[in-house]
């Protein structure tokens, strides 16, 4: 136990020393690559209200040291996260598909928190493996790195699960919402008023998106652009086709109620096809209760009368 603890403490100190030396080496001027923006940045004016001859604002030495130390680490950490889970534009689109109104920075903070939790769990597992199983230090370091990476990827996976669940919820709501829009338009309301009525009287993910679309139109966005953005910020493909069909019907003067009814019928047919595909994919899983529960009972009921007759004859 004491030898394992000494080896682990030595490995931790060596890791800290290596990270410190790497940071110092990365901060050296002749080893740090500077782009054109960093070269001309000291000669640019920060604000139009300030003079070039004004004395620069002084900062404390502690703040300067922290910014110089943590700045490159933060930039490199965000770069690693972007390489693992996609760039900022892709992450922004995925957040909108999941229905989250938070920024990419807040999601990166959540990823860092998940990574820190995974790091702590990895350290705990590594200490137990080294102290109890007498594992090697390299295996412990691998477990620590695996825990941190697993935490980051787990947060990204949970975001994908949110997108999938939201798409399924919208697919269930879409036929009913399309019928409500068709009824409102057939009663004489305009498409914008019909969407506003559905958003006001209904609850769910799809009525919330209709409320956002109506808000965009009220703010000055054209109807075609608002409907196109409705399709891009939702994970449901049929909703994008719905927006395109409604915008084309409004531009060409096609009876909108018939278009909405056709869209609702297409959504129902698509939900039926998805249900049949899901049933076909899970056919093996559906056989599990038949084989392990129903079939043994059938065999017992078939054999029990014969066993009872044999006992009586004996």
Describe this protein's structure.
This protein has 314 residues and is an all-alpha fold. The protein folds into two domains: 2-22 and 64-165, no CATH class; 166-277, Receptor-associated Protein. It has twelve helices and no strands. The chain has helices at residues 2-26, 36-40, 61-85, 88-97, 104-132, 137-186, 191-201, 205-218, 223-232, 237-252, 256-281, 283-313.
- Report the span from N to C terminus: 68 Å
Beta-strand proportion: under 5%
How many structural domains? Answer: 2
SS field, number of helical segments: 12
User: What structural class do you assign from the helix and strand content?
Assistant: mainly alpha
Q: Radius of gyration, rounded?
A: 31 Å
Considering the chains and any ligands shown, give keywords for the structure.
0% strand; Receptor-associated Protein; single chain; 314 residues; mainly alpha; 12 helices
Question: How would the blueprint of this fold be written?
Answer:
Elements: H1 2-26, H2 36-40, H3 61-85, H4 88-97, H5 104-132, H6 137-186, H7 191-201, H8 205-218, H9 223-232, H10 237-252, H11 256-281, H12 283-313
Could you write a compact summary of the structure shown?
With 314 residues, the chain is mostly helical. Helix content is 80%, strand content 0%. The protein has twelve helices and no strands.
